[in-house]
Amino acid sequence: MPDSTATALPARRVISQDSLQLRPFDRYGPPQPGVQWHPITDNRETGEATYYAYYEPGAASSPHEHPLTEEFLVVEGEFVDHDGRVFKAGDFVSYQPGTKHWSHSPKGCLLLVFLRCLNRRLGEGEQVSDFGA
């Protein structure tokens, strides 16, 4: 019999994209300008998380490294990587461990993000990944 005193998530939760409760993106410290999120899961011990991220037009991520795989689905709008590659609604993007990059959204976008661990912000002068052609 399950322990009724445990505080666990319900066996099933449904998050409707139309009723997201976005708040400033503060997963790595002070809120990141122009970025909001709706956490679905967020384990601060392991860094694993699934969340919606909304980038206002012109907003950008900080340069960072993915110690483990990170993936996202572009739900709406366009997201542009540091090398100019444009990801459009319906694109699913997977970054392998060790990838270093930053992205921005000139027109704004909504992403569904899947993290396996916390990302590491790049230090001054660290180079981003060269994805090639």
Provide a quick synopsis of the model:
The protein is mainly beta and 133 residues long. It has strands at 23-24, 35-42, 49-55, 59-60, 64-65, 70-81, 86-88, 92-95, 100-101, 103-105, 109-115, 120-121. The chain has a domain at 35-121: Jelly Rolls (Sandwich).
Structural summary, described in words:
This protein has 133 residues and is mainly β. It has strands spanning 23-24, 35-42, 49-55, 59-60, 64-65, 70-81, 86-88, 92-95, 100-101, 103-105, 109-115, 120-121. The protein has a domain at 35-121: Jelly Rolls. The protein is built from no helices and twelve strands. Strands 1, 2, 3, 4, 6, 7, 8, 10 and 11 form a nine-stranded antiparallel β-sheet that branches. Strands 9-5-12 form a three-stranded antiparallel β-sheet, with no helix packed on it. Residues 1-6 have low confidence and may be disordered.
Secondary-structure blueprint of this entry?
Elements: E1 23-24, E2 35-42, E3 49-55, E4 59-60, E5 64-65, E6 70-81, E7 86-88, E8 92-95, E9 100-101, E10 103-105, E11 109-115, E12 120-121
Antiparallel strand pairs: 1-2, 2-3, 3-11, 4-10, 5-9, 5-12, 6-7, 6-8, 6-10, 6-11
